[in-house]
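Onboarding guide, step 5: your first structure request.
Type a short instruction followed by the sequence, for example:

Predict the 3D structure of this protein.
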Amino acid sequence: MPVLHQMERRFGRFVLLAVVLGFAALVVAVAAAAWGFARTQEMNGLLVHTYRVELTLAEIRTLTERAETSRRGFLIEPNERFFQTFVDTEAQIAPVLGTIDRLVADNPSQVERAQRLRSDVERQRLTIASSFETRRGGDAATARQAFLSEGGGDIIRDLRRIADEMVAEEQGLLDARRQAQERSLAHTYWILAAAGLILVVVGGGTVELVRRNLAALRASRNDLRALNDNLEAAVETRTADLQRANDEIQRFAYIVSHDLRSPLVNVMGFTSELDAALKPLSDLVERAEAEAPQLASEEAKLAVREDLPEAIGFIRSSTQKMDRLINAILRLSREGRRVIQPERIDAAEVLEGIAASLAHRSGEIGAEIAIEKPLPGLVSDRLAVEQIFSNLIENALKYRDQARPARIAIRGRREGKRVVFDVADNGRGIDPRDHERIFDLFRRSGPQDQPGEGIGLAHVRALAYRLGGNISCSSELGRGSTFSLALPAIYSPRKEG
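The system replies with structure tokens like these:
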């Protein structure tokens, strides 16, 4: 065994070294590839820039030559369509010159050429406009003589020369950058080749060491087989211990449930007594109101007619809910594991019942519980579904944002063979780092300013799993939370571990 341990240590050190070297080689290779890609993208951008400059200069040449052509046509035949062509062309030249200015703004020599180009274009515009005015006066000979003396052709040649110089400048810059890129790519290929060689060496060494390690592991197989022979007995012992612990938990739950039932029965009994006493008390207030109005105060009438019936209704609703929970705990304690009892459930009816049981609390804090109908129905365990929704809605009320009225919206949809319900609120929100941890037992998120033990959401996820579904959370601090419950539309039993 010491030899095996020594081999394992050597193997671990080599694997660690191989992982570090391989990771370093991969990082270098990825960085080199990313750098080469960035350089290629940069060169593509420069190539596009050059093409844009060339195309824009070609457009300027076309427009200036068109303007010159319109002048010559007008001198031959004074038709206003030539003048309109000139006007339209001049309107197009200004934005094209602006484009050239923007494209070459980072190159001082090109900026100087662009200024010369703009000056020649302006000189051409003035001479052409003068020719039009002279020709409109009817003196064709004077207009032609002015055309010859103004040197319209010289301006066009100057414009072409400036454009050619600018194109040559861009091409020269592009060639220099292309050569630099080729050198950079060559360096990148060398780096990638070196990284690949390191990976091959590390991989080969790892394969050889793994082969040796496997031989040592085969030599220790007999020892492991002997240990495994005793494993079954150890597992049986552990299972028996767990079963005894589970039995203790069941007995504890049974005792606690009975202890809870006793005061609950008292509360339910006294609620019935209050309900029965409310009728004669109401009659007494009505008689007092009729016979001695000064004795029947508004507070007494309001208490008898509204407050007491509403309070009794809330108490009865809450005790009934608690009675169902205690019955569920008793069934769990008797059976070890409660059997899922699927039945057809009207989700809207279940949610309305929960909203009614929470009406008093939500009214006190000014909260709104909105059930967006229609909601899909499902076949599942009613008690589990009620517990899930109750917990989610109560949490939304508990962790509301004090700066605005609480609003809880429940909506649902059918997705294939599943139904999905969203319980969305506008509360304080949950840190993204806690979106999964809040479903762990005894884990809570945010300021601990509300009572609770951190078991509600863990119980919710456990119930969702038992029903064949899942629950997830999406939330943003200060914006609210949305819990999405996905369940099979029709529950089908599955083997539970």
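Each response can be followed by summary notes, for example: Confidence is low (pLDDT under 50) at residues 239-243.
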